[in-house]
Automatic annotation (TrEMBL), chain A:
<dbReference type="GO" id="GO:0043161">
    <property type="term" value="P:proteasome-mediated ubiquitin-dependent protein catabolic process"/>
</dbReference>
<feature type="domain" description="Proteasome alpha-type subunits">
    <location>
        <begin position="8"/>
        <end position="30"/>
    </location>
</feature>
<dbReference type="GO" id="GO:0019773">
    <property type="term" value="C:proteasome core complex, alpha-subunit complex"/>
</dbReference>
<feature type="compositionally biased region" description="Acidic residues">
    <location>
        <begin position="248"/>
        <end position="262"/>
    </location>
</feature>
<dbReference type="InterPro" id="IPR001353">
    <property type="entry name" value="Proteasome_sua/b"/>
</dbReference>
<keyword id="KW-0647">Proteasome</keyword>
<dbReference type="GO" id="GO:0010499">
    <property type="term" value="P:proteasomal ubiquitin-independent protein catabolic process"/>
</dbReference>
UniProtKB/TrEMBL annotation, chain B:
<dbReference type="GO" id="GO:0043161">
    <property type="term" value="P:proteasome-mediated ubiquitin-dependent protein catabolic process"/>
</dbReference>
<dbReference type="Pfam" id="PF00227">
    <property type="entry name" value="Proteasome"/>
</dbReference>
<dbReference type="InterPro" id="IPR029055">
    <property type="entry name" value="Ntn_hydrolases_N"/>
</dbReference>
<dbReference type="GO" id="GO:0005737">
    <property type="term" value="C:cytoplasm"/>
</dbReference>
<dbReference type="InterPro" id="IPR016050">
    <property type="entry name" value="Proteasome_bsu_CS"/>
</dbReference>
<keyword id="KW-0539">Nucleus</keyword>
<keyword id="KW-0888">Threonine protease</keyword>
UniProtKB/TrEMBL annotation, chain C:
<dbReference type="InterPro" id="IPR001353">
    <property type="entry name" value="Proteasome_sua/b"/>
</dbReference>
<dbReference type="InterPro" id="IPR016050">
    <property type="entry name" value="Proteasome_bsu_CS"/>
</dbReference>
<dbReference type="GO" id="GO:0004298">
    <property type="term" value="F:threonine-type endopeptidase activity"/>
</dbReference>
<keyword id="KW-0888">Threonine protease</keyword>
<dbReference type="GO" id="GO:0005737">
    <property type="term" value="C:cytoplasm"/>
</dbReference>
<dbReference type="Pfam" id="PF12465">
    <property type="entry name" value="Pr_beta_C"/>
</dbReference>
<dbReference type="GO" id="GO:0019774">
    <property type="term" value="C:proteasome core complex, beta-subunit complex"/>
</dbReference>
């Protein structure tokens, strides 16, 4: 062993003397540095909005979707290590299918959140694995109505009215609190606009890269209980609203191509090295 | 056995069987299950007061026909699953219960002689009836009849069943149907048992031969 | 040798090839009954065991103790009834030790039926299970394939038809202990007299709520053998002694050895 550090962070499942699990905390760091994700629970559904940083000009706009569907009625967005998220979603899909097969009814959201929570927690216990480097927001609609959960690398999950993860989470959370206390009964379309506005606003805090807004929703009134991408017209409307509300700052960002070069952490782009968020 | 056809009539030697008349009928406020009470071993009546209506959850019950041992084993397992389900997710729907029955009956079709009718009430879907015959298929129906005695009452039931009957109408319809099934089927007999499932929970009824034979 | 032995299987195959029949396990052509009464439950059995047309045992015990207050009457394959009640009785005791509770009749019932169902009727035990536990007095019957029945009175075995005839005609609601004993004994006697597979005596076990179980072995003995009218023994001296000879069939050598004991 090298003489660096206490040694309590070298393995999973090891506590430090003051009761912390460093590997899990590092995983939280990985999630905190990811792209911003926002989820809002409204009257009869939920909406996801994610900031998709454009890591290469060669990427096709509108493709490379980040929000995934776990089951017809459940969506998932996450920030942190993308492959970890995709693995979690795969597991979620297996759980959802297995539930549907045995019980002939779509998996309720609390049940899915619980199963994924147990799965993530199991990855804090063994030396052969590492914790998930993501914080995932899981939301959808079931017989009991709309649900929104946020799942952390420790396996902890809580139910939320509004949730945010990633770099811009602090300001996003503050904004969510403001909105959801002043308008507790948002309509689906209002929620979409607010989510878009919050992602644009949160991006303002660290404008280093161009980004594309990706959104999906799941509600009884608008999508018949299915998790779907927000339609083009509504997305455009939401983006316009977001830009207007945020003083149209990001619009100028979008058009300025050479502003990138001034940014020193953009060197990798020039070398054609695409870094996945 | 070639894997496609199932020897469905063969009961293992000396096995106790429910040569039976069973039915379940949806009505305005829920669903009612009904059955005769005869259990036979060959020509001998092993039990003349059998209860073929079995609870698998508060408001999900089933009618059993075929081998007594097989259907009891299956319902015991379903009861266990639904208890776990309730602890984790709350009240199961009738469909969920029927699906568990179906999985067991289908996956063990080569070793089971079980014809089961699952009936239940849940607040969202009201009264529901699922029939699960020998191969393990599942059929959602407005009403279902099964067992050896049922063959005699297909016509009667088809003619006389109406949707959204009252409780009294449904009980009379079932009493008449089962009385005929018992009358013509030697493997059915004893008393007629019924369970009424509504939002208020289960209610048991019993009709003695003198009540139904004179109908 | 480790593992399963298929010797008997091979023997049976060989015998099957050479003859029309294969060896059959001892079957207790039997009459057993159980009756509930006000405040308790009792079970009874005859005591004949048969091997085909031969009476193998004139006074065997068909009432098995599964726990102090849960008893079981067995019909069918003698070895199986014996073994399955012993096995489940053992597990029942472990369970009651683990749970610090008196064992329940429904537990015995569930364990027995699951065991028998697992063996798909190959364990040929037909049982009447009865007993008292903290929830009261209970009476059940189990068939070899694992199906169970509940009732105020039960009968099983080859003499069950004769016994059931008595039960169906004489049973009434709210029996007293004494009435129940008479009813059950009469039912068994019906089996003893009218069923070829049943005979000899009546064993009884009475289980009353709040009391110890009472095992009444040979409660009725309606088949006592009469004393022989004459003795068939030959009187001493009937056969004349012509000569007598005593042979040493081995040599005995004696030797004493001193053993020194150390302190």
């Amino acid at each position: 062993m090298t003489s660096i550090g206490t040694g309590y962070d070298l393995s999973n499942s090891v506590f430090s003397p003051d009761g912390r699990n460093f590997q899990v905390e590092y995983a939280v760091k990985a999630a905190e540095n990811g792209a911003t994700c926002v989820g809002i629970k409204y009257k009869d559904g939920i909406v996801f909005a994610v900031e998709k940083l454009i890591t290469s000009k060669l990427l096709v706009p509108g493709k490379n979707r980040k929000i995934q569907t776990i089951d017809r009625h459940i969506g998932c967005a996450y920030s942190g290590l993308m492959p970890d998220g995709r693995h979690l979603v795969n597991r979620g899909r297996e759980e959802a299918q297995s539930f549907k097969k045995t019980y002939a009814t779509p998996i309720p959201l609390p049940a899915l959140a619980d199963r994924l929570g147990q799965y993530v927690q199991a990855h804090t216990l063994y030396n052969s694995v590492r914790p998930f480097g993501i914080t995932a927001i899981i939301g959808g609609v079931d017989d009991e109505g709309a649900h929104l959960y946020m799942l952390e690398p420790s396996g902890t999950y809580w139910g939320y009215k509004g949730a945010a993860t990633g770099k811009g989470r602090q300001s996003a959370k503050a904004e969510l609190e403001k909105i959801l206390s002043s308008k507790p009964d948002l309509e689906a379309r209002e929620a979409v606009k607010e989510a878009a506005r919050i992602v644009y606003m949160a991006h303002d805090d660290n404008k280093e890269k161009d980004f594309e807004l990706e959104m999906s929703w799941c509600s009884i009134s608008e999508t018949n209980g299915l998790h779907k991408p927000v339609p083009k017209e509504l997305l455009d409307e939401a983006i316009a609203f977001a830009k207007a509300e945020n003083g149209d700052n990001s619009d100028s960002d979008d058009s300025s191509d050479d502003s990138d070069n001034e940014n020193d952490n953009k060197k990798k782009d020039a070398e054609g090295d695409v870094k996945l968020e | 056995m070639n894997g496609i056809q199932v020897d469905i009539n063969h009961l293992k030697k000396g096995e106790v069987s429910l040569g039976t008349s069973i039915m379940a009928v949806t009505f305005k406020d829920g669903v009612i299950l009904g059955a005769d009470s005869r259990t036979t071993t060959g020509a001998y009546i092993a039990n003349r007061v059998t209860d073929k209506l079995t609870r698998v959850h508060d408001k999900v019950w089933c009618c059993r026909s075929g081998s007594a041992a097989d259907t009891q084993a299956v319902t015991d397992i379903v009861q266990h699953y639904l208890e776990l389900y309730t602890a984790q997710f709350g009240e199961p729907s009738t469909k969920t219960a029927a699906s568990i029955f179906k999985t067991l009956c289908y996956e063990n079709k080569d070793n089971l002689t079980a014809g089961i009718i699952v009936a239940g009430y849940d607040d969202k879907n009201k009264g529901e009836v699922y029939s699960i015959p020998l191969g393990g298929s599942i059929h959602k129906q407005k009403y279902a009849i099964a067992g050896s005695g049922s063959t005699f009452i297909y016509g009667y039931c088809d003619k006389n069943f109406k949707e959204d009957m009252t409780k009294e109408e449904t009980i009379n319809f079932m009493k008449n149907s089962l009385a005929q099934a018992i009358k013509w089927d030697g493997s059915s007999g004893g008393v007629i048992r019924m369970v009424v499932l509504t939002k208020d929970g289960p209610e048991r009824l019993i009709f003695y031969p003198e009540d139904y034979e004179t109908l | 040798m480790a593992g399963l032995s298929f010797d008997n299987y091979q023997r049976n195959q060989l015998l099957a090839e050479r003859s029309k029949t294969v060896p059959q396990a001892t079957s207790t052509g039997t009459t057993i009954v159980g009756v509930k009464y006000n405040g308790g439950v009792l079970i009874a059995a005859d005591t004949r065991s048969t091997q085909g047309p031969i009476v193998a045992n004139k006074n065997c015990a068909k009432l098995h103790r599964m726990s102090p207050k849960i008893w079981c009457a067995g019909a069918g394959t003698a070895a199986d009834t014996e073994e399955v009640t012993r096995l489940i009785g053992s597990n029942l005791e472990l369970h009651s030790l683990y749970a610090s509770r008196e064992p329940r009749v429904v537990s015995a019932l569930q364990m027995l039926k699951q065991h028998l169902f697992k063996y798909q009727g190959h364990v040929g035990a037909y049982l009447i299970v009865a007993g008292v536990d903290p929830t009261g007095a209970h009476l059940f019957s189990i068939h070899a394939h694992g199906s169970t029945d509940v009732g105020f009175y039960q009968s099983l075995g080859s003499g069950s038809l004769a016994a059931m005839a008595v039960l169906e005609s004489n049973w009434k609601q709210d029996l007293t202990r004494e009435e129940a004993i008479v009813l059950a004994s009469d039912a068994i006697e019906a089996g003893i007299w009218n069923d070829l597979g049943s005979g000899s005596n009546v064993d009884l076990c009475v289980m009353e709520v709040g009391k110890d179980a009472e095992y009444l072995r040979n409660y009725r003995t309606p088949n006592n053998r009469e004393a022989k009218q004459r003795s068939y023994k030959f009187a001493r001296g009937t056969t004349a002694v012509l000569s007598q000879r005593v042979l040493d069939i081995c040599q005995v050598e004696e030797e004493s050895v001193d053993i020194e004991l150390e302190a």
